[in-house]
């Protein structure tokens, strides 16, 4: 029988845990593609590897996976508006693109560059086999997505 410490070592998958670091080195399925059916559709709140995340399909059709909370007042972006290549927080209107960069801050003067310093955590995504896959590990160790046979056949 495993001790509590051994069980925690094997079962905890949050950021900075040994098993969390292992899982983050691979592309993992996070959603069915049907859960984000069309551009600018409603966002989806998910919890993957101990992180609260938000998935949304931008106007271009690209799938974004970002931190679920606005860095300003920690409002959940699930209640945000998916519009024109980004998600807009309903609390103060900050807008983030698919890479997590703040691109609009309507409550700040236009000549300030404060929005350029604000960014959400964002993860790369790919679609294959009717699923949306994410890579949550370090960018420098990102592998090619695995070619599983069921992801290569037509839907």
**Strand-residue fraction?**
25-35%
Q: Please state the overall shape, judged from the principal axes of the Cα atoms.
A: globular
* Largest beta-sheet details: 4 strands, antiparallel
CATH topology value: Rieske Iron-sulfur Protein
Structural class: mainly beta
Describe the structure.
The structure is a single chain. This protein has helices at about 5-10, 20-25, 150, and strands at about 25-30, 45-50, 50-55, 65, 80-85, 85-90, 95, 100-105, 120-125, 125-130, 130-135. The protein has about 160 residues and is mainly β. The protein contains three helices and eleven strands. Strand 10 (about 125-130) and strand 11 form a beta hairpin. The strands form three sheets. The chain has a four-stranded antiparallel β-sheet, with no helix packed on it. A four-stranded antiparallel β-sheet has the order 5-6-7-8, with no helix packed on it. It has one domain (about 25-150): Rieske Iron-sulfur Protein.
Characteristic terms for this protein:
mainly beta, 3 helices, 155 residues, 11 strands, globular, Rieske Iron-sulfur Protein
Question: Helices and strands in order, then pairings?
Answer:
Elements: H1 4-11, H2 18-23, E1 27-32, E2 44-48, E3 51-57, E4 63-67, E5 81-83, E6 86-88, E7 95-97, E8 102-104, E9 122-123, E10 125-128, E11 131-135, H3 149-152
Antiparallel strand pairs: 1-11, 2-3, 3-4, 4-9, 5-6, 6-7, 7-8, 10-11
Overview in brief:
With 155 residues, the protein is mostly beta strands. The chain starts with a helix and ends with a helix.
